[in-house]
Amino acid sequence: MDAADTIAAVEEATTTERTRIGSDKALIAATGANLETDAVWAAAATRETGVAEALDGWASDADATVDGAVVDAFDRAATAASERAARIDAAPGDPDALSAHLDAVDGTDERVGAGLVAPALVFDRFYLQVVSYFVNEADETSADVARELRSGASDLEPARDALAALDGSGRERARDAAVEAVGVAYEEYANALEAIGLDPKPVC
């Protein structure tokens, strides 16, 4: 299982969760049903800032046993997330569940999966709804910004580079950690909707 196979395995294992996270209920869950522009941007800033801080900490604290390609991937992804957060005109709120989860992840292999693979897949779905929100608001300037943020946040290149530096068993651990992290994000989404009386499952 190479880097591409690892990412594909995560995608396959989390299809249902990612589909629901990217539904039209995504921003209801992320904002506590406060569908105002400031709240939407604050939710985005919270997610970008949380991931940036976790990745930056991992890059800074990496010891000599961590492959340089992995450290570089953490650093690049942290810098990119910080730059995206800086583009968002909103202060981050309390850490979201995925960010809080990353603070507890130990092990280089696990961090590659949870911190590089999972956020890219989750943020791709989250920003899909941010774009839709601003399109519906007829705010094309903000929609364009959201599209650019989505493109950057869903970039899996750092994940591929880091996964390529791991051995086969390391990629398996990264896969499992990524699946778990996506599950954490989904659980937060589902719990937030259930708390306000909405079913996280799609209505067929």
Could you describe the 3D structure shown?
With 204 residues, this protein is mostly helical. The protein has one domain (3-195): Heme Oxygenase, Chain A, CATH 1.20.910. The protein is 75% helix and 0% strand. The chain is built from 10 helices and no strands. The chain has helices at residues 3-13, 15-21, 26-31, 37-61, 68-87, 97-102, 108-136, 140-153, 157-164, 168-195. α1 (3-13) crosses α9 (157-164), α7 (108-136) runs antiparallel to α8 (140-153) and α7 runs antiparallel to α9 (157-164). The longest helix is centred in the middle third of the chain and has 29 residues, at 108-136. The chain is globular.
Write a brief structural summary.
This protein has one domain: Heme Oxygenase, Chain A (Up-down Bundle).
What are the salient characteristics of this protein?
mainly alpha; Heme Oxygenase, Chain A; 0% strand
The number of strands is: 0
Largest sheet: none
Count of helical stretches: 10
Rg calculated over all Cα atoms: 16 Å
User: Helices and strands: which structural class?
Assistant: mainly alpha
Distance between the termini: 36 Å
- Mean pLDDT over the full residue set: 94
CATH topology: Heme Oxygenase, Chain A
Q: Give the SSE string.
A: HHHHHHHHHH
Oligomer: single chain
Strand content: under 5%
Range of helix content: over 70%
Task: Please describe the topology of this protein.
Elements: H1 3-13, H2 15-21, H3 26-31, H4 37-61, H5 68-87, H6 97-102, H7 108-136, H8 140-153, H9 157-164, H10 168-195
